[in-house]
Amino acid sequence: MKLEIAVLSGDGIGPEVTSQAIKALEAIMHRFDHTFTFKDALVGAIAIDKTGNPLPDETLHLCASTDAVLFGAIGDPKYDNNPSAPVRPEQGLLRLRKELGLYANIRPVKAYDTLLDKSPLKREIIEGTDISIYRELTGGIYFGKKHLNEEGTIASDLCEYSKEEIERISHLAFKAAQKRRKKLTLVDKANVLESSRLWRKVVTEIAKEYSDVTVDFLFVDNAAMQMILNPSQFDVILTENMFGDIISDEASVIGGSIGLLASASIGDTCCMFEPIHGSYPQATGKGIANPIAAILSAAMLLEHFDLMEEARAIKDGVEKALELNLTTPDLNTINPLTTEKVGDFIYDYI
Amino acid sequence: MKLEIAVLSGDGIGPEVTSQAIKALEAIMHRFDHTFTFKDALVGAIAIDKTGNPLPDETLHLCASTDAVLFGAIGDPKYDNNPSAPVRPEQGLLRLRKELGLYANIRPVKAYDTLLDKSPLKREIIEGTDISIYRELTGGIYFGKKHLNEEGTIASDLCEYSKEEIERISHLAFKAAQKRRKKLTLVDKANVLESSRLWRKVVTEIAKEYSDVTVDFLFVDNAAMQMILNPSQFDVILTENMFGDIISDEASVIGGSIGLLASASIGDTCCMFEPIHGSYPQATGKGIANPIAAILSAAMLLEHFDLMEEARAIKDGVEKALELNLTTPDLNTINPLTTEKVGDFIYDYI
Ligand SMILES: CC(C)[C@H](C(=O)O)[C@@H](O)C(=O)O
Ligand SMILES: CC(C)[C@H](C(=O)O)[C@@H](O)C(=O)O
């Protein structure tokens, strides 16, 4: 297969981990005889520094014209304490999602057997956890009308959802559930929010088309509890943008290291793959960043193009690295490897 | 002291646990020579059943004219799967908060030494946790304009905050921090929401009046992670209504039993005290509901009226019960006591 991939490695540890993901894809390319071409572009704080714009037009055009986007991370401490700055790295990411129509953010959360003891949660609580979170990514309060009155004393954000926005991600989530343990949990706040009541209505309607999938409804406050009390009860979680942001970050802690968690953002014509850990500026350039989340994001890319055997090869490499504890300091305090060496091991393994 | 207390015991286990809280207050009354009078009123599903209204006018009037409200719980399974029903128990609670102006919801979260092993989190993670969450309770997306178009295909909720709404609860939270470990963490999503940026601006401004308090800002997604990774880092958490709902329920899991967690809802003229566990319909009438959250809510009531020694007496009784494991089945599977017997022990202890 021929694939053109835009590489937006961004800020902080983004470049370091993304280059390990590229290396893994190169290994796949050689072993399975595919042609992947990689094209770099700017995003985030580095794009602001160089062009004044967190998402330069060139970057957007490149992303829209390639088959997939490999994303690193964005964010720089110099913007962190000033969320009111007129130009900020996050704006680049939010605009990218919107412009590319990446309406479904998919985050797998898995408790790896070899890492059960790294979790802040007890082993018996997390054992067997294997969740796929489907978060709506281009609607809701993130993109609704914002308002600040002239005096700067009243501020508002609108959380709006249309039936169509709910339908398209719901179909993806139900299809995923059919291939998994056939359970879908809608997380909402339907006892308070009108938009949540629409989610519940639309999902109830769609559920009829997927009669083999069991549907559950959970209020977001209860979901935040259940995620800690009994995470293995979940299979596919479906939810709106803001609740998905919170619940998926909460869930990311289960596995013992946020350095393992990959994500895919999917639209009708574009797709983007991204480790969820963010730019982690304190670690930049030290060779201590865990590349596994980026590498697993590359595996999600392959799965998206139905290259299942290829994705499996990457995942096997990752699991081997975890098993042998050939990992970075977040997982291995005694005898850690560098970012690059972990990438090398997985490359060689493939 | 003379106090008139409205008792809204509500649904499910509400009546059972509330009567134990009243018993504890009666013990205090005798020992410290106060006069507490209790007046019952309807709220929730039981109020719908009897009057068609989850918050009858009589109840509202009673609450507005007494010194304090002791609240049990609301909610009944017959409404749970139908959040679109025109009349629902939650509406009673939300209207009560709004009409009484209870803008600050305060939830202490503590890891009791005697219960460290009951938590889904590891002992070393939760040890020393002692958080006081200040959640704004009468604004934000809960009470903003809701809209559903005629075709029922587009729904929205407005999250709006004014400077004044933010100020009044912030002052309470800063004052609380001054009496505690002098740290306040504002949880928001200022990198996305206009309303969060107003929170950050107003809180930064107010912080100048409390120069002995250290202020931190945390995005809500990160807060959801930190609550599990390292809960003992927090002292006072201040946040808006919806984030507070999610984060405080998440935090409630730390201590090992949600049956221990009390709350206070405070306004300028009224106050209400409530266990956070909800109506727990499956347990109703079985004598297995943990009365401690309700009893500790009564202690918060006493603290609100500056009866510190009295509150201490209740808390000592609770701690003794925990120490001796004289508790209900949620905490004691071997030799559990009934709801009533736990209440009796604390009564006798006082
Ligand atoms: C950086 C931020 C705007 C973003 C979000 O809230 O969506 C991030 O937290 C994420 O989850 O990808
Ligand atoms: C019952 C519900 C409306 C309520 C809320 O969301 O505020 C509850 O979850 C709470 O936290 O008291």
UniProtKB/TrEMBL annotation, chains A, B:
<feature type="binding site">
    <location>
        <position position="135"/>
    </location>
    <ligand>
        <name>substrate</name>
    </ligand>
</feature>
<feature type="site" description="Important for catalysis">
    <location>
        <position position="189"/>
    </location>
</feature>
<dbReference type="InterPro" id="IPR024084">
    <property type="entry name" value="IsoPropMal-DH-like_dom"/>
</dbReference>
<keyword id="KW-0479">Metal-binding</keyword>
<comment type="similarity">
    <text>Belongs to the isocitrate and isopropylmalate dehydrogenases family. LeuB type 1 subfamily.</text>
</comment>
<keyword id="KW-0028">Amino-acid biosynthesis</keyword>
<keyword id="KW-0963">Cytoplasm</keyword>
<feature type="binding site">
    <location>
        <position position="107"/>
    </location>
    <ligand>
        <name>substrate</name>
    </ligand>
</feature>
<feature type="binding site">
    <location>
        <position position="245"/>
    </location>
    <ligand>
        <name>Mg(2+)</name>
    </ligand>
</feature>
<keyword id="KW-0464">Manganese</keyword>
<feature type="binding site">
    <location>
        <position position="221"/>
    </location>
    <ligand>
        <name>substrate</name>
    </ligand>
</feature>
<keyword id="KW-0520">NAD</keyword>
<comment type="function">
    <text>Catalyzes the oxidation of 3-carboxy-2-hydroxy-4-methylpentanoate (3-isopropylmalate) to 3-carboxy-4-methyl-2-oxopentanoate. The product decarboxylates to 4-methyl-2 oxopentanoate.</text>
</comment>
<comment type="pathway">
    <text>Amino-acid biosynthesis; L-leucine biosynthesis; L-leucine from 3-methyl-2-oxobutanoate: step 3/4.</text>
</comment>
<feature type="binding site">
    <location>
        <position position="221"/>
    </location>
    <ligand>
        <name>Mg(2+)</name>
    </ligand>
</feature>
<dbReference type="GO" id="GO:0003862">
    <property type="term" value="F:3-isopropylmalate dehydrogenase activity"/>
</dbReference>
<feature type="binding site">
    <location>
        <position position="97"/>
    </location>
    <ligand>
        <name>substrate</name>
    </ligand>
</feature>
<feature type="site" description="Important for catalysis">
    <location>
        <position position="142"/>
    </location>
</feature>
<protein>
    <recommendedName>
        <fullName>3-isopropylmalate dehydrogenase</fullName>
        <ecNumber>1.1.1.85</ecNumber>
    </recommendedName>
</protein>
<feature type="domain" description="Isopropylmalate dehydrogenase-like">
    <location>
        <begin position="4"/>
        <end position="346"/>
    </location>
</feature>
<dbReference type="InterPro" id="IPR004429">
    <property type="entry name" value="Isopropylmalate_DH"/>
</dbReference>
<keyword id="KW-0460">Magnesium</keyword>
<keyword id="KW-0432">Leucine biosynthesis</keyword>
<keyword id="KW-0100">Branched-chain amino acid biosynthesis</keyword>
<dbReference type="Pfam" id="PF00180">
    <property type="entry name" value="Iso_dh"/>
</dbReference>
<feature type="binding site">
    <location>
        <position position="249"/>
    </location>
    <ligand>
        <name>Mg(2+)</name>
    </ligand>
</feature>
<dbReference type="InterPro" id="IPR019818">
    <property type="entry name" value="IsoCit/isopropylmalate_DH_CS"/>
</dbReference>
<keyword id="KW-0560">Oxidoreductase</keyword>
<comment type="subunit">
    <text>Homodimer.</text>
</comment>
